[in-house]
Every structure is written in structure tokens, then in C-alpha cells.
Amino acid sequence: LPQKEVVFFLKDMIVTSAMDREGDEEALEWATLGLNTLRDLVFERPSLRRACMNLSLACAMHTNQGLRAKAIKLVANTLYPVAYLQGDIEQFALKALRQLTTAREGSSKSLSTAEVSRHMELFFALCTKKHDLLHELLSMFARASQTQKQVMNQNVSSLAKRIPPTSPSVVGVVEAPPPGSEILLLLMLHSMAEEASALPKQLVRAIQRLYRKTGDARFLVPVFADLPKAEAVEILPKFVELPETARRTAIANAYKEGPEGRSAGNSLSASELFVRLHLIDEAKTGIPLKKLIECTTLCFKMSDIFTPKVLSMAIQQLVQYTPLPKLFMRTV
What we know:
Blueprint: H1 3-20, H2 25-44, H3 46-59, H4 65-79, H5 83-106, H6 113-129, H7 134-143, H8 146-160, H9 168-175, H10 182-195, H11 201-214, H12 229-240, H13 244-254, H14 270-278, H15 282-285, H16 289-301, H17 308-318, H18 326-331
Helix pairs in contact: 1-2, 1-3, 2-3, 2-4, 4-6, 5-6, 6-8, 8-10, 9-11, 14-17
């Protein structure tokens, strides 16, 4: 077949069958065969490379979800790692992202969640291969509409689980996050903290520097489990002021391996945390007693961590203080 006819034939095989028979397994099998042929032609027929690449990218933004997923897998896993194809693929994915901003500015009608996802999925897949793209993703979040932010928030967890926390690019975005991207960055860090047995020290230090720079105590939550004992004690007044959901997340993550914490002897144990909450000075910190009571109540609720044994150890330590901490009278 002439070159032009080859591309038309493949487009008909992949796109038309997927459109006419959406959800049909046989149609998707034909689409898979067509995509594999596109892959071979990109690598083996330089004269057809551009046309086949463009068709692959178009499929990666197709409205048919099944076809789109297969095309994204092809582009991200097979084509994107090839150096001479990266630039064109990145430009296409960035253009798709930026079209969302253009559409938002040019119309009073908001895009649907499905349409936003269609424009974003390829770029998310590329981020797992090239971590430097995270900065662009966070920048886009800062400019995004509510629907776009919602889609990003929903997808960033699975993205973060595919990026190693040891990546220098992760440390880079933590050290200099685009203004307005804090929520997405926090969700990303939470997912990494949940997935990892321990966050790398370099990343923990970068998050601590970001906290000191911004004063945003929410950044303490993903690193609470990895802080040395003295530093964990130091930030407890800020920790107490966080919403209950944030405190619960931090505690659950810190003691998921046991009440001794991530590093027995070096980490703040569950019993030591309970004691230290009682020793927070209301006058010096300005934290109302009510807030401290909320924290100890949360500990009692998390009985899988604050077991009778853990609480008994804490109370044995508390009764040795003279005078007894004011909060202790509420606890017993």
C-alpha cells in the first residue's frame, strides 16, 4: 500500500472500530493489533514515523476509554523512553494540558470530569517516566479550575506510588513548589509516606525546610513518622493544632509497624507521644486545653495503637510528675 493509504487503513482499524463498537472486546483487540503495527512502523519505517506517531498520540486522547488506555500504555512505556521521540511526545501532552486552561478562559461552560481526565492522563503517565515533569504538573494545578483540581487530586495518589521518593525531582519540587500547588504536593507526599517503609532522609529534611519556610504545619504529617524523637517533640504544639483527620493520618502512619514507631529507641513511641501531649504548656504555646483534650481523645479512639499496655506505660510515667499535668486529671 502507498504510505498515505497505510495510515488511513490503520486509523480505520483502530479508531473507527473503537468508535462504532465501544465496549466490544473484539474491537479493542483490533485496536491493539493496529497500535502494535503503529509501534513497529514508528521504529522501522522512518518515512512513516511522523504520521504513525501522530496517530498514536491522537489515540492517547481518544474519547473511547479502552482505546485511550491502550494507546497511553504504548506511548508512555514504549515510545517515550526513546530519546528522539521524547520531545514531540512531551509537547503533545503539555499542549493537551494547556488546552484545559484555554478552554476555561474561552468559555463560561465548565468541562466535565471525563473530558478533563482525557486531557490529563497521558501527562500523568509521562510523569512516572520523567520525574522532572512533576514541576509542570504542580504549576498546572495552581492555575487549574475546581474540576481540574478534583481530577488531579483523584489521580495523584496512584502517580506518587509509581515514583520513588528517592527521586531528586521529588526533593526538587519540595524545595521549590510552585505557589498554589500545596494541596497536590501534600497528597503526593502522603501517598509516598503510606507506601514507603521510611521516607529518605534527604526528602524528610527537604520537607522540614519547607515547613520552616512556610509555617504550614500540614507538611509535618507525612514526615512525622520519620522524625527523630527530639524533633518530633519539638513540633508537637504545631501537630496538636492540625485538624483531627491530619493528626489521625500522621499517627496511623507513624505506628503502623507497632507502638515503638519506625525506629525503636530513635522514634517517639506511642506511649511517649501520649505523655508528651500531657506536658505541652498551655501558657507558653497558647494552645487551649480543649484542643489538648481532643488529641488525647483521639488517642483513646485509636485503640489498635494506644492499647491498654501502651496507656498503662504512659500513665506510670505521668504519675511521677510533680505537680501532675493539668490534662492528666482529665485523662484519668
